[in-house]
Amino acid sequence: MLCDVSVLITGGAGYIGAHIVRLLRERGDDVVVVDDLSSGDPARLGDTPLVTFDLAAADAVDRLRATIERYSVESIIHLAARKQVGESVAHPAMYFRDNIGSLANVVEACALAGVTRLVYSSSAAVYGIPSGAPVTEDAATEPINPYGETKLVGEWLVRDAAPAHGLRSVTLRYFNVAGAGWDDLGDPNVQNLVTIAIDRTVRGLAPVVFGDSFDTPDGTGVRDYVHVMDLAEAHLASLDALDALGAAGGPADATVYNVGTGQGASVREVLASLAGASGEAFDPIVDPPRPGDPPSVVADASRIAADLGWRSSRTLDEMVVSAWRAHEWRSRTPA
Ligand code: WQD
After folding, report:
1. How many domains does the chain have?
2. Residue ID of nearest Cα to ligand 1 atom 7
3. SS3 for 277?
4. 48 CA distance to ligand 1 centroid (A)?
């Protein structure tokens, strides 16, 4: 079957991946998704081709090569990974096997199939407990959990693939992602502040604040919350930059960018935004801080702005309101 050139997105049936797929399809790109559906939802993809297999499996390189060939793939966005910090602490071997193994298979398939453009999903978790704010890409990378370690080792692998295989790459270090670009693409995982607070609100429970004595303006933890649509747009900007470079030839390189707003927001600020979105104002419960929780993690996102012209454009309130609307849509829509 003759196809236009496609972008292959691993993990494209996931919360973030589905936003990238929809943006690419809306602008006319052809996309093929590889996803094992261990946490992804095919309903998010509409008529986008989906190939389902485990990227860490022994036959993954062959199946990736076949998919690359069938869909005339020239660039890959690799999102597929396990990403629960607590689970990674309990099951480090599974995280290294799956997160590093799947990426290694993607890199090997690229080398064998002649794919030279890769966008790699990394995380602010590679910084561990950064000193001061905002964090630049040159800050020390000292992850404090196996999840963050696998993301950092993945960056090393992608970097090594440049001279070895001519693989040009952009690595994106996500900060705290939330919100929804469409009501049907909300984050169903109740694992991070916004979705946990929404879940508790709809159940009539007060949200919980993990520590209010940090050295921050209001004592609660500060993070850089970036709207998932802004994050998805950063992937399109990265792809376009690689496509331009790819056509020019020349030595491959591996560039790393923070993807954040550059503005911090405290837990209390996020909860105040949610109270406005939901119309429900709870006095939060204050619990002790989580072990190892950094007081503040905020991006310096000036490098991606300078190189790719990408900047976040959506506000904290837009992010929280969109997350709330998506949750309401999901509760109205039968599974
Ligand atoms: C945010 C803030 C908590 C829940 C994680 C992982 C990693 C990365 C980003 C992908 C902190 C506070 C939270 C609650 C609270 N994602 N909090 N009450 O820990 O910054 O980072 O997400 O790479 O998965 O590093 O995110 O949402 O858990 O916490 O007070 O019920 O909210 O202490 O200050 P975190 P988070």
Report:
1. 2
2. 125
3. helix
4. 32
Residue position matching structure tokens 């309101």: 321
User: Is 78 in the same domain as 194?
Assistant: no
Answer for the pair 159, 122: CB distance below 8 angstroms, yes or no.
Answer: no
Which helix (H) or strand (E) is 300 found in, with range?
Answer: none
Residues with CB under 6 A from ligand 1: 83, 85, 123, 125, 174, 176, 192-193, 196, 208-210, 221, 223, 267, 290, 293
> Distance from the CA of 192 to the center of ligand 1, in angstroms?
5
Per-residue tokens: 242: 């690689």
Backbone phi, psi, residue 309, to 5°? 75, 15
User: Is 86 domain-assigned?
Assistant: yes
Distance separating the N- and C-terminal Cα atoms of the chain: 34
Residue pLDDT, tens place only, 19-73 = 999 999 999 999 999 999 999 999 999 999 999 999 999 999 999 999 999 999 9
> Phi/psi class of residue 116: alpha, beta or left (left: φ > 0; alpha: ψ in -120 to 50)?
alpha
CA torsion 60-100-98-82 (nearest 10°) is: -120
Cis peptide before 134 (omega within 30 of 0): yes
Question: What residue numbers bound the domain in which 273 lies?
Answer: 183-224+261-298+313-332
In the structure encoding, which two tokens stand for residue 136, read together? 């630049």
Q: What is the pLDDT of residues 121-138, one digit of tens each?
A: 999 999 999 987 799 999
Higher-confidence residue of 247 and 234: namely 234
147 is catalytic: yes
